[in-house]
Design brief:
Length: 411
């Protein structure tokens, strides 16, 4: 009996290990397209691998999994972040939880994770074949028969069970097309976790400025996010922007990445509360220049820019800023508008929204409803998350569930 796992990434290794732990006698082979397995895990988290999250600040899974939260909730009953944490520690990788609830190996080195996965797979007898790119898949002709797998420039192979863990597929042709031709429903792939290009020179001149707790939203939509915001030489970046790009990934793709970005530089300040704060500043420091006394949390370069953007001269004293000036400043601080000119093409922590539709799989086993013996896990499925360790957690959870379910296929 043979199992073929397509894709030697996070989900592929986790599925292989979970399967072998239950069924040591089943021959399990990971087929990996590139020369090296686990390449993305290696570069994840800037080489430190943010492998999961404590979920302590997550009230609703929808806030971190814009796509796939219902399935993740169900699968967390089988293998959740605490199980992942315990798994890595049990396998010799001590972990640490940062103040922002992101979990990293204590070594601060992703190799601790990749070596552990590779060693464990080797110990259990998982075979790994690199430079094997799956290009075709034919279902068995009869019940309990084998799938035929075609690889680019290689002889074809067969396996009774196939677990597809080929990761995010940014293009609809290629593997997604192969799967679509098998009748599997596919959600069109779109990038997620990207930053915004904003063609506004006086803003981008502020590159390097960080606002710890900004709120951002897309005008005319319900998409909004809060967190640190970074001004860059191309526009805006930072966790708040990445989170917004994730929640609005499909909307922005439809809008050709053009939309008005609303920025509340004060975070959750309302026009009323910000006006009250400004009146307090003006009342306490009437003779000081507006630029010399500013709202907490805003760096002086940004403050000067926002004052000027509100039409207030930088020499003006607080006592000289009339009602109209204060109202303009309140508006700039709480509802500043910038047209997004596009998606910044440079990729950092980039994931793909879309992939194999969740309606295609049994939600308890991740087996294709229409193709017995074919399982899915990882980013190839239409599951993706905001930053913070949630994407790798999805790979561990779905890999574990698919691996265990595949093991029961042989029972
Ligand atoms: C720069 C960067 C940093 C990131 N940092 C983090 C982080 O710190 N924390 C976090 O949670 N998430 C992070 N992510 C996201 C996370 O890495 C992915 O969501 C996760 O790796 C998905 O796991 P996977 O196993 O589904 O896919 P992958 O890990 O991408 O593995 C898929 C594998 O399949 C192979 N493959 C593809 N097509 C074929 C084919 N046709 N035949 C054979 N093999 C194939 C690929 O080469 C690849 O090795 C980061 C992503 C990037 C790009």
């Amino acid at each position: 009996m043979r199992t073929a796992i397509i894709g030697g990434g996070a989900a592929g290794f986790f599925a292989a290990i979970a399967l072998k732990e239950i069924c040591p006698s089943v021959r399990v082979t990971i087929y990996e397209r590139s020369k090296k397995c686990l390449a993305k895990v290696e570069i994840s988290g800037g080489g430190r691998c943010n492998c999961t999250n404590s979920f302590a600040e997550v009230g609703d899974l929808k806030s971190v999994y814009p796509r796939g939260h219902k399935l993740m909730k169900r699968l967390f009953n089988v293998f959740d972040h605490e199980d992942a944490y315990a798994w890595f520690e049990r396998h010799g990788v001590p972990l640490t939880t940062q103040d922002d609830q992101c979990v990293f190996p204590v070594s601060q080195d992703s190799h601790s994770i990749t070596l552990t996965l590779q060693n464990e797979a080797r110990r259990l007898g998982v075979e790994v074949r690199t430079l094997h790119e799956l290009t075709g898949l034919t279902p068995p002709a009869e019940e309990k028969g084998a799938y035929t797998l075609e690889f680019l420039g290689r002889p074809s192979e067969t396996a009774e069970v196939v677990i597809l863990t080929a990761g995010g597929q940014p293009r609809a042709d290629g593997l997604l097309d192969v799967l679509s031709r098998l009748g599997l429903p596919i959600q069109s792939p779109h990038p997620s976790l990207f930053t915004f290009t904003i063609a506004h020179k006086s803003l981008t001149d502020l590159m390097g400025v960080v606002v710890e707790g900004a709120s951002v939203a897309l005008a005319g939509t319900k998409f909004r996010a809060q967190g640190p915001l970074l001004i860059t030489h191309w526009g805006m970046s930072g966790p708040a922007i990445l989170k917004l790009s994730s929640h609005a990934a499909l909307h922005l793709a439809d809008a050709d990445y053009r939309s008005d970005l609303l920025v509340n530089w004060t975070g959750d300040g309302t026009p009323e509360s910000v006006l009250a704060d400004l009146l307090t500043l003006a009342g306490t420091h009437p003779q000081r220049q507006v630029t010399s006394v500013r709202l907490a949390g805003l760096q002086s370069r940004l403050w000067d820019y926002l004052v000027a953007r509100s039409g207030i001269s930088l020499e003006r004293r607080w006592a000289e800023v009339g009602k109209k000036g204060l109202n303009k400043l309140v508006n700039t601080l709480t509802a500043d508008v910038y047209p997004i000119a596009g998606r910044y093409p440079h990729r950092e922590e980039f994931v793909t929204a879309g992939g194999v539709a969740l309606s295609a799989v049994n939600p308890n086993t991740l087996e294709a409803k229409a193709l017995p013996g074919l399982y899915f896990a990882g980013e190839l499925l239409d599951i993706d998350a905001v930053t913070g360790g949630f994407n790798l957690q999805a790979a561990w959870t779905t890999g574990f569930v698919a691996g265990q379910a595949a093991a029961h296929h042989f029972a």
